[in-house]
Amino acid sequence: MAPTEALTLALWQTTYASTTAEALQRLDDAAAQARAQGVQLLVCPEMGLTGYAIGPGRVRALAEPADGPLAQTVASIAQRQGVAIVYGYPEHHPHGGQPFNATQAIAPDGTRLANYRKTHLFGDMDRAQFSAGDAASQLFEWQGWRLGLLICYDVEFPETVRLLALQGADAVLVPTANMMAFDEVPNLLVPARACENRVFVAYANACGNEPGVHYGGLSTVAGPDGGVWTRAGRDAALLRTTLTREALTGARRSSPLPARRRDLYGPLAG
Length: 270
Fold this sequence. Notes:
This protein is of the alpha/beta class. It is built from seven helices and 14 strands.
């Protein structure tokens, strides 16, 4: 597909629902609202269909394969509302371990575009509930845009976004459940990742509370020059913005990537 000049996306910053049925209904409503605003792609928070701080037993009970009932329902929503959806869910571990913290992209025709398992687990809660994915994120193409998926803590490691940039990424989509104490991530690290790699970074956070956890909001889209294109506050929001190929082209005229000294970087893999 020839690249489109622009891609309109929305970050859905929301509280977690108490049940998956409620979460799916709210997703349907948000997708309808997004489409009415001309949005092509809706990015939801980490573990958005089930809640994040729900405990290992609940995570295991709700886990499904990537093509399970949750994926089928999201595909129906995408088709009904005519919008692509990136959503988070617990993915069943095929070998009996703790489920994966996963995110999946589904096209408006219901096609599953990409599935990614979080590779960097944050803190005791993440490690108690999930198994770490063992594969780096790979690009997928939609509307002529080359897109990559990461989840929350992943984006705090420079290597994750750099690997996607070296594959030719135009934008990195990051469902997250970042907590109030870590505002440096949306305020500093997300713009830095975008700037140093000359890509868009779209960081979709939760807001509100779960037991013992207060989510920080501040969902952010950073442009390829590191500028903040849009940022939410602390409360629920549907944050719409349009990514442009012109911005990518302009930023990449001064990209540092061609000047990398790969011969010097061997120790970074240690």
